[in-house]
Amino acid sequence: MIIDESLPGKEECVGSLKNILDALYVLNGKWKLALILCLVQSSKRFNEIQNEITGISSKILAKELKDLELNDFIKRNVYPTTPVSIIYEATEYALTLKNVIGELSAWGEQHREKVKQSMRKQS
């Protein structure tokens, strides 16, 4: 409930909605923020990422990594070893999501029980 705050005007709501839709466009999906968080902690190989984020298939992981690379959230480094080594790392741009990830984490912790109940209802 909003207390003692005036409601935003129509223009402010429309602007906020556009901003949110833009953010969701590049961060949509179940895995993107988890992948960014995983790579912010340290650079990793494909299999290391897949082992750390349980439940993601190889096909989806490959697609999500490509999307994140296209949007400059991660960098794919290819090293000419035998066999070729590919290491993924978070970019400086990904670090701009630090506050967003922190707020989502705090919200998730605060509302964990309600979210679990909702998940049980869906299954």
List the topology elements.
Elements (H helix, E strand, L loop, with lengths): L9 H18 L4 H10 L4 H7 L5 H13 L3 E6 L5 E6 L1 H4 L2 H13 L1 H11 L1
Antiparallel strand pairs: 1-2
Structure description:
The protein has 7 helices and 2 strands, in the order H-H-H-H-E-E-H-H-H. It has 123 residues and is mainly alpha-helical. The chain has one domain (10-116): Arc Repressor Mutant, subunit A (Orthogonal Bundle). The chain has a two-stranded antiparallel sheet with strand order 1-2. A hairpin with a 5-residue loop joins strand 1 and strand 2 (85-90). The longest helix is centred in the first third of the chain and has 18 residues, at 10-27. The chain is globular and about 60 Å long. The relative contact order is 0.11.
Describe, in short, the structure shown.
The chain is mainly alpha-helical. It is built from seven helices and two strands; from the N terminus they run H-H-H-H-E-E-H-H-H.
Mean pLDDT over the residues: 90
Structural class: mainly alpha
* Cross-sheet strand order for the largest sheet: 1-2
User: Helical content, roughly?
Assistant: 55-70%
Q: What does the largest sheet look like?
A: 2 strands, antiparallel
CATH topology: Arc Repressor Mutant, subunit A
Order of helices and strands: HHHHEEHHH
Keywords: DNA-binding, Transcription, Transcription regulation
Organism: Chitinophaga oryziterrae
Protein name: Transcriptional regulator
GO molecular function: DNA binding
